[in-house]
């Protein structure tokens, strides 16, 4: 998903670029070039933060995505069995929504036909089904030897293979792994009444339960559980599954009436301390594979894409001969992405550990923290900017602009034509 999005943005912005996509998965009996791989564009959903939506608008994609997305107008965060809770409302920050929720399969249906048009123009070459068998590095290029026997030379290799990326291993880029002893049970659930565009993050003794509003009055469910318990609940008949979910979550979201196909994913934090090496960049889950708590994963990947496209713009708009994989690009990518990634990993990992702990003292601290967030407008505004992706995108845009201005002042227009909107201010409210 990240690789397809990156290819679309790069080819749309830079007519001089030529790209190759090496795709491991093919769908039997279909047109291999236009069919999105099912294991990348399946029935899961993603929460797009407000900043991510603005990036998609800048890239000319949001107008086609919007019809299948559902707005989040309020987020309710609560800790079951404890008094702490907080609410975020879009109206508090003078916004129409805090973000959007989209079923991933719609992205595949949008992106792959667009990429096929670039193939017809000769600017994009597919190698599918295929995989990278070996890498050879020279000062001027990366040489990719494919399993099929094809050899590709490239100025820059961008690895977007997911958390278990084999090409990352070939490139010698180390991976840190931290199992959570949890599994995420994913499904869509139908409601008896309207969801009113409210998203929930409900912390329970077994793990967080997230409900994200979808079109057609459904919720996308992400239910975090101990692996053995998750496996047992996964296999329950629909009626018993809904009973278990209702008991675990409560009735804040209403009555659950239907449940769709269920899937189970073991949860492990995976990240590389090296976003880049010589003529190689990691992007998306190949660089950072997070716990789904707070829904930060794909939003982080979109900021990876924004950094890559901005840095490539510095080369293609420079007065000097373009080299999209030069040291200046790979070094700057590491400088741009490491602080953002480290902050999000620390944030999500801390949430998992704080809210997966039965200590009464820690539970009291959680409740006090949520209450403070609820009642302090300044703290809430800062938290909202970070959660909506506005602050990290703005910081990255400013850094990119600084890089562009230092290299070629005329190039700054290619990155900063549509700055992210961050003029938020939480309204002071009287206590109820």
Automatic annotation (TrEMBL):
Q: Cross-referenced PANTHER family, in alphabetical order?
A: 2-OCTAPRENYL-6-METHOXYPHENOL HYDROXYLASE, UBIQUINONE BIOSYNTHESIS MONOOXYGENASE COQ6, MITOCHONDRIAL
User: Which cofactors does the annotated protein need, by name?
Assistant: FAD
Protein name stated in the entry: 2-octaprenyl-6-methoxyphenyl hydroxylase
- Protein family per UniProt: Belongs to the UbiH/COQ6 family.
Where in the sequence does UniProt note compositional bias of the Polar residues kind? 410-426
Q: Care to name a GO molecular-function term for this sequence?
A: FAD binding
Give, as in the UniProt entry, the pathway in which the protein acts. Cofactor biosynthesis; ubiquinone biosynthesis
Task: Write out the ranges of the annotated region (Disordered).
Answer: 410-432
Q: What keywords tag this UniProt record?
A: FAD, Flavoprotein, Monooxygenase, Oxidoreductase
- Output the superkingdom of the source species: Bacteria
The organism of origin for this protein? Rheinheimera riviphila
Q: Which intervals hold domain FAD-binding?
A: 38-319
The Gene Ontology biological process annotation of the record reads: ubiquinone biosynthetic process
Q: Which InterPro entries match?
A: FAD-bd, FAD/NAD-bd_sf, UbiH/COQ6, UbiH/COQ6_monooxygenase
Matching Pfam families: FAD_binding_3
List the SUPFAM superfamilies. FAD/NAD(P)-binding domain (SSF51905)
